[in-house]
Amino acid sequence: MDKKDASKIRFAPDEIYNYVLSLYQLSKYKELQTELDISLEKYPQDIRLLSISGIYYFKSNNFNKSIISYEQALEIDPFFTDALNNLGVALKTIGEYDRAIEQYKKVIAIKPTDADAHNNIGNVYLKKGNFESAAI
Prior knowledge:
It is elongated, with a radius of gyration of 16 Å. The two termini are 31 Å apart. The mean pLDDT is 91. The chain has helices at 3-6, 14-25, 29-42, 47-59, 63-76, 81-93, 97-110, 115-127, 131-134. It has one domain: Tetratricopeptide repeat domain (Serine Threonine Protein Phosphatase 5, Tetratricopeptide repeat). By secondary structure, it is mainly α. The relative contact order is 0.10.
């Protein structure tokens, strides 16, 4: 995405984002789901809201919807490392190890010092029994 494309994204006002974030942090999940539905209908390209949606669905053990939320965010901004990392976690959780590794490699390519991505990719390699790659 270049600057020209980025300028087309409509983000929710910070008040809405902060409210949604606070609902998540306070574990008010029923209210959070309602507010996410309303906010994402009005601001469907807000990658921050899509990411919180992914986290919400992950915490609700709805991994498929979690994956969809992260993928939607990444369609808008393929360099959004939080979504890439969290997508990897969701994919790992459902046993999609190779796809999870792909996401972590993308994060590392964008942000080589991302400790979470390095840790997560190592854990997936361990799950696959690839101890040599896990140690790198």
